[in-house]
C-alpha cells in the first residue's frame, strides 16, 4: 500500500518586500509555506539578521556582549561599520536608547542627526528603533523620517497609539514601517488595517509581534507568530501576510541568566557561552515561528543562527 | 425563541447604584421599558451579592413584579439570595444559574419552588474546552436533577458564550456542536445563552452585528432561548421571525455557500463578514466590517 503523506493546503503567501536601496538592498518574505517547510512550498528569501548598534555607549551589557565591539561602542558610526566589515552584517538596527525619557532623554534633533550620520556611512538597510514611548517616538521618529529622506529606512516601533503621526511621516518620505503590537494576533491584524487605511502601501509594512527571550515566555510569542502564519497562509488573511521582524537581542541580554558570572553560580557554566547560546536558541525558536528579520547582537550567536538557517534549507 | 431581557444588571451605571440605594424608580422604569420591547422574561442580575444578598433579591423581585407581569429570571451566585427571591416571586421563575459545583445546595430550590433552571455548563475544572466536555457536564447535571425529581423540560442548558476577541478560545464551533448533540444526550432539555458575551470587548456601536448574527446562527441549531439586550430592536425582530431573508442568508453562508458580495446590499455584506469572523474562517479584528 502506498503511503500518502498529508500536506497542508496553502491559499496565501507572505508579501515579498524590498528593504533599503542600491546593491545592498535586501528582499524578505515571499514564503508560500510554513517556516522551513520546503517540502510543501517555497521560502524564496532566507531570513536575514540585522546587527544591533546602540546610539549611546551601553552601560550594563554583559562582558561577553561587549567584547566583540571593543573600542567602538561609544561611536555608532564606527560600530555599524565594524558590524558590516568584521561580522558581515546584512542590515543594521540602530536602537535609539538615548532618547528614552526615563533615561538620557536626548532631544529629537540630536538623535536624528546620529541616525543620519549612520545612514550615510553604511550601504546596508538601516532599521531605526525607538523606545516605545508614544510621545517621544512620535517626535524622534518623525524627525528621523524627515532628516533621512530617500534613505529608505525601516522605522519602528509603530504602535496603535502613535501610528498616525509616525505612519504619515514614514509614508511621506518612503520609509518602511514596523507595525508593532503586544503579542496579540487580533491587535496585529487591526494595526495593519489601520496602517492600510492611512494609505501606507503593503510593500512598506513589516510586523513586530513583540518577542521575549527563551525562559521568559517565548512560547507565547511563538504561538502568536504561528497563528499569524496560519491565518496568512491557510486562511488568506491578507492583513497578516507581512514579513515578521523580531527585536530579540535586547530581550536576551537583559535577562538575569546572561549576567551571572560563573564564580557566582558554577553550575550555570561559562558565562560567555551561556549568553551566546541563549541568544542563538532564542533566534532559533523565532525562526521556526516565522521570523524574516532577527535583530541580534553577538557575532557568535549570529554565526550559529546562520548555520541553522543554512542547514535547514540545504537541499 | 424565548427572549430574556438582560438590562436589569448590577453592573449597569444606573441600575447598580439604584440597587444599592434601594431606589425603585430607575429599576421599575427599566422593567416597564423592557416589557414593552416584546421580551418574554426579565433577568434580574444582582451578581455574587455576598453581603445581604437575600434582602436585595427579595427587594428587587418585589419592586419589579409591581410593574410587570413578565416571568422573572433570577441571576445570582448566592443560593441564599436566590431562595429569598423565589420565596416572594409570584408565578414561575427561572433560576439563573446552577452548575456542577453548587448543584447539591441549589437543585433542591428548583423542586421546592417549582421553578425552571439554567444549567450552566461550567465544569469542576473551569471552562469546558470542547463540545464533548460540555456534553459530559450536561449529562451529569441532568442526571442529578432527574434524581431530585426535576424533569428535563425544566432544564435550560447554557453552553457558555465567550467573547469573539479571545481568538485562542473561540468557542463558537464547540457551542454549535453541543447544540447538535443536546437532544440526543438529554432529550427534552432546553437551551439558552448569554448572547451579548460574544461581543464583549468589541466596539460598542458594532456589537449588535455580532449579537444578531450569532443569534441567527444559533437559531439554525435550535436554540430555545437567549438572554439579550432588550433594546436591540433588530435583534428582537430576528428572534420573532420577522427577518426571514436575513436569516436565510446567514444559513446559506453557514452551509458553505460563498455569495457574491457585489450582489448583496451593504447591510447584508456586514452580516456575511460577521458570520466568517464568528466561525473563525476570518480572524477577528475591530475593523472586521471594513475589510
Report on this model:
The complex is a heterodimer of chains A (315) and B (291). Chain A has 315 residues and is α/β, with parallel strands linked by helices. In chain A, 40% of the residues lie in helices and 14% in strands. Chain A has one domain: Dihydropteroate synthase-like (TIM Barrel). Chain A has eleven helices and ten strands. The model of chain A has no long low-confidence stretch (mean pLDDT 96). Chain B has one domain: Dihydropteroate synthase-like (TIM Barrel). Helices cover 44% and strands 14% of the residues of chain B. Chain B has eleven helices and eight strands. In chain B, 44% of the residues are buried. The model of chain B has no long low-confidence stretch (mean pLDDT 95). Chain A binds chain B through residues 185-187, 189-190, 193-194, 197, 223, 227, 231, 235, 237-240, and chain B through 165, 167-168, 281-287, 290-291.
Explain the layout of strands and helices.
The complex is a heterodimer of chains A (315) and B (291).
Chain A (H helix, E strand, L loop, with lengths): L16 E3 L6 E3 L19 E7 L8 H4 L9 H12 L3 E5 L12 H14 L4 E4 L4 H14 L6 E5 L4 H10 L3 E5 L4 H13 L7 E4 L9 H17 L10 E3 L1 H4 L3 H4 L11 H19 L3 E4 L2 H14 L3
Parallel strand pairs in A: 3-4, 3-10, 4-5, 5-6, 6-7, 7-8, 9-10
Antiparallel strand pairs in A: 1-2
Helix pairs in contact in A: 2-3, 3-4, 4-5, 7-10, 10-11
Chain B lengths: L1 E8 L5 H7 L2 H13 L4 E7 L5 H13 L6 E5 L2 H10 L4 E6 L4 H10 L3 E5 L10 H17 L7 E4 L13 H14 L4 E2 L15 H14 L4 E4 L4 H7 L4 H11 L11 H13 L13
Helix pairs in contact in B: 3-4, 6-7, 8-9, 8-10, 8-11, 10-11
